[in-house]
Design goal:
With 331 residues, chain A is an alpha/beta fold. Chain A has twelve helices and twelve strands. Chain B is mainly alpha-helical and 310 residues long. Classes of the chains: A alpha/beta (331), B mainly alpha (310). The complex binds adenosine-5'-triphosphate, iron/sulfur cluster and magnesium ion. The site of iron/sulfur cluster has 14 residues of chain A, from loops.
Amino acid sequence: MERILEVKDLHVSFHTYAGEVKAVRGVNFHVNRGEAVAIVGESGCGKSVTAQSLMKLIPTPPGEFKKGQILFNGEDLIKKSNKEMEAIRGKDIGMIFQDPMTSLNPTMTIGNQIMEGLIKHQGMSKAAARERAIELLTMVGIPQPERRVTQYPHEFSGGMRQRAMIAISLACSPKLLIADEPTTALDVTIQAQILDLMKDLQKKTGTSIILITHDLGVVAEMCDRVIVMYAGKVIETGTVDDIFYNPQHPYTKGLLRSVPRLDLNRDEPLTPIFGTPPDLLKPPVGCGFTARCDSAMRVCQQYDPELTDVSSTQRSACWLQHPLAQERVGS
Amino acid sequence: MIRYLGKRILFMIISLFLIITVTFFLMHSIPGGPFTSEKNVPDEIKKSLEAYYGIDKPIGEQYVDYLKRVITWDLGPSFSEKSSTVNDVINRGFPVSAHLGLQAIAIAITGGITLGVIAALRHNKWQDYSAMVIAVLGLSVPSFILAAFYQYFFAIKWGLFPIAKWETFEHTVLPSFALSALPMAFIARLTRSNMIEVLAQDYIKTAKAKGLNTIVITVKHAVRNALLPVITYLGPLTAGILTGTFVIERIFGVPGLGREFVLSITNRDYTVIMGTTVFYSIILIVMVLLVDIAYTIVDPRIKLSDAGKE
Ligand SMILES: Nc1ncnc2c1ncn2[C@@H]1O[C@H](COP(=O)(O)OP(=O)(O)OP(=O)(O)O)[C@@H](O)[C@H]1O
Ligand code: SF4
Ligand SMILES: [Mg+2]
C-alpha cells in the first residue's frame, strides 16, 4: 500500500515564559492512500499540535520543530520554505477545525471563503470559482446553494457552517484531509450527519483522512486504523479491530474501559483512568504512564519503551511487550 | 430600516432640545453679562442695549423666544460683533474649521491604522515598540505643547512651513498634524490591540490552511475585522477633533469656528455661545448616526432594524 504520509520521530516544542513545553516528543505514524486514520488520546496529549505540524501551521516562535521528518508524497515538509508550504496548504492537504462558529471569517461571504483557495491554487476566474463553490455546497448537502454562496457565516447554523468548512477544505480535492475534532462543537444529531457526510465524501473522492476525536464510537464507525497518543508520544497503533479487541498498552486498555461501549458487555462498570498526565515542561525520562499504570515496573521509570511490533498491523510502546516481561507475565 | 431611522431622528431632536435647554440655563446662571466689561457705557445706553437684545426680559420668556428662533435656524445677533449675526459667524468660521478637521481626521485615520497594523504584525519587535512609543507620546503630550514644538522646529528652525495664519495649503499642514496627534495615537493603539486579537482567531488559521499568503490574510481577513471597533470610535473622534480645534486654532491663528467659540465665552457673548453649541451638537449627533449606519455596511452581522433575519 502506498504511504501518502509518513511522520518520523517528530519533536515539536513551545518556548514559553515557564520554559520549553515539549508538546510532541517523538511521534511516528503513517497514513496510506485512501485510508481514514484516527488519532485519539486525552486532552493535551499533543493531537492538535501534531495535526497542525503536518501543515506547518504552528507559529514559530513560540513553536519550534526540534527534530524529525514529515514525509508527504516522499518530500520532507519540515525542510520546505513558507512559500512552498503555501502551495501545499489547501491544495494537497486540507484541514477542518473544531469550532465552526469561530473558524469562518464573519465578514466575508461563504462563497468568497470557498472561492479563495480555488482562485489561488487552480487559477480559476471568479465566475468559474463561483460555479465550483455552488457545486461544492451542493456536494456537502447545503440546500439552495445559489442563495447560500452570497450569505455570511452568521446566517448559517452550526452544522451548516461545518458543512461549509468541509466544502472549503475539499475545494481543491486535497490528497489528505485533517479533521481536528470536527464534530465536538456540534450537537449529537448534527454530529452524526457531519460524520456521514465525511464518510460519504471520502468514499467518493478517495481522500485520506486523519480524524482527531475523543469519541471512540466515531473511530469504530469511520476509521481503518487508530493512533493512540499519550503525553506527546504515540504509544499504540493498530487497526480498529486490534485496538478495540486486542489492546496491548495499559493506557489504551484504560481508555477503552473509561468510555461506554455498545458492542461489549454492558454490565461491566466504567472506570476512569485515575491521575493526570505528566507535565510536558518536565517530561519524565521513562514511560510517561508510569505514575498511573497498574503494571508499572522498575524499568518503566528509568527507560522509555519504544514502539515495537505486536503483530504485522499493531505496534505498542510498553515494557510489557518486552520478551523478558512477557516471560514474567506468562509464568 | 426607515422606521429605525425615524426613531433615531426623533431621539436626536429630543437630545438637541435637552442640550439647548441645559446650555441656556447654565449660561444664564453664571454671573456677569455681555456688557459688563464695557465699563464706561452709561446705564441708559446699557439698558437700551439690553432691551434691544431682549435680555431685560424674564429668563423664561427669553428661553421661549430663543427656542422659537432656533427652529427657523435664526441664531440671533452677536453681542460683541455688532455688524454680524451668529449665522454669519458660523458661515464664516465653519468652512475653515471643517477643512482643518477633515485634514486632521484623514491623517489620524491613515496614520493610526498604518501604525497599528505594522505594530501588530511585528508584535513585540522593534517596529511594535517604536509605534507604541509614538502612540504614547501622542496620547500624553498636550496638543498645545505639541503645537509649540512644531512651530519651533518646522517653522522657526527649519522654515519648512509658515508658523501661523490660514492662507495657502502650507499654512494648513502644521495645525492639521498638531490636531491629528491625539486621535492618531488612539486609533493606532486600538488598531494594534484589535489586530493582535484578530490574528489569534480561528478563522485566520483557516485562511492560512487555505494556503493564502500573509499579505492576503492581513488585508482580506484581519484588517477588516480589526477595524470594526475603530469605526465605532469615529463618533468620539469627531468630538475630539472639534474640541481640539479650540486650542489649535488659537495657537495657529486659524480663523475657524473653534476660535470664535472660545472668544464668545470670554466675551459672554450669549447668542454666539448658544449658537455654536447647538451647531456643534448637531454635527456630533449626526456623526454618531452616520457611524452607526457605516457600521452596518462594514459588518454584515449588524442590521439597523430590529426586524431580525429572514
Ligand atoms: N502555543 C502554545 N504555547 C504553549 N504550549 C502550547 C501551545 N499550543 C499547545 N501547547 C501545549 O501543547 C500540548 C498539546 O496540546 P494540543 O493542543 O496538541 O492537545 P490536544 O491533544 O489537541 O488536546 P485537546 O484534546 O484538548 O484538543 C498542551 O500541553 C498544550 O499546553
Ligand atoms: S511501560 Fe511500564 S508504566 Fe508504561 S505502560 Fe508499560 S507497564 Fe505501564
Ligand atoms: Mg486539540
